[in-house]
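Sequence in, structure out. First:
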Amino acid sequence: MDHSNKNVDRQKKRRSKNVVLIWLEFIPFWFLYQTIRIVPIKFAYKLIHLLSRLLLTVDFKHRNRTLDHIMHANVAANRKQALQIARQAFYSLGSLLVEIIKMDQFFKPERISIKSSPEGYDRTFGEHKGNVIGVSAHYGNWELAGSFWATLSDIPVVSIMRPFSNPLIGKYILRGREASNHQSISKDGGIRGLMRALKEGKSIALLVDQHASTREGGIETIFFGQPCRTHSSPAILHLKTGIPILPQVTRRLDENGHFEFIMGDMIEYKPTGDKEKDIQTVTQMYTTALEKIIAADPTQWMWAHRRWLNLNRKHARHYQKLSEESQLR
């Protein structure tokens, strides 16, 4: 067995959980799930917001990490303002859980407005609609985006599904993910499954705002002024097929089931012949596009994730030094 396979096996082992831990996590989740299913949605939101506030108070690790990331991205002027954004971000994540559990009870396409350029709307929902490569972020209600998009465009959408570390919880969460025109496939299928979907005239939807290792095809990019690695598969697919890339998120407007489907400018890039440079350029283009959307209202993004290479990572000091040196040039 080569070193790369050994590394993959070690990572899988770290992600796997023993049976006792799986059930210890699942039992309280099951009670919360059943409670949210039967109570009115307004009460469910109040309950989950209370739990989110409690979590923000007692979970020092993720609270401090969230505050560090908000300050690192320069979206808050001071720690007090960062705490306000962090509180709203925790609320947003809790609200997402409520909406996933009660998806069949509240989801109505007519409650979702669309914010887009004329070109983006025409390609996605208009007279000249066709399949696109959707890139999105863990923002607002990202679980709703695929179902809404497929329903309104009438073009099948395929998204990537990462396996849950707790399969019992994953089974319940996935119940509301797919619609009749929205299919999830395993990430193990890789780029071939996505290419097949595009050739069949389907759109694809990919979450590309989290850290991607070099093994996963991560390309170094800049996000909120700081170095990170971003999934390059959308760029590779775009350069191979010419199908445009659509940056988009689904922003929560209130707690009455109203959302805003925000689409950034369509990305269409003409290859130069330098494959590596082209992949880097396109990957940075959609990274920047998502940053612009998130920066307009940073309260609904999942800030706790270790996105940047120069903060809360093993080699953070090395990347921080490189970043400082580049700023001095």
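Second:
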Amino acid sequence: MYEPLQQGKILSGIWMTIKLSFYCLILSVVIGIVGAFAQGSKNVIIRSLVQGYIQFFRNTPPYVQLLFFYFALGQFTPTYSPDGWLEIPIISNVGWAIISLSFFAGAFNVEIFRAGIEAVADSTKEAAESLGFSRFQTFRYVVFPLAIRVSLPSLNNNLINLMKTTTQAYGIAVPELLYQSVTIWNDYPSAQYPTMLLVFVVYILLVGVLVMSMNRWERKLRIPGYGH
């Protein structure tokens, strides 16, 4: 950290880790909500597709998924040439990391939200439908606001695991904190221990902020006597 070059690597790595975690957290939650809603569809094909997605991403290692997305699917990614010579894929390694990790965590979020939805009493859903609500309106205004309160503890754990899993983006050269740290101790072997200590401290702080935010959100949404 005494050298401006190494300090810049660490700071840029921390910033990339924060951005990667943020986009993965948001996208995985959106995938979870959409998937949980689709699981309640009357269409067998839609339900089968969602179930196939869940089984694929839950039953394969996230690192293998990351490599598959980047090296296998990445071959079919369209490219553009800003200077007429260099071909650049429209989805970068950062983009593939966000997509892969989000789909991985999203598969667990679908099941988390599904469990929350099933915890809502059928009488509550029937009351909404008797008032003329469509299935989407019932989900949006009645079921989901109640289901998310039940789902928050499990969702909290999954999002924490997702933030820690972002270190696997190192495997496709995403310049996050771990990647930048490795480049430093490759040049300066004596920096390995203090740099690794720094990585631990940064992740403890990032996860701590996420845990406190989720716990605060959980307390704010809590309905006394509901879900307990």
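Remark: The two ends are 48 Å apart (CA to CA).
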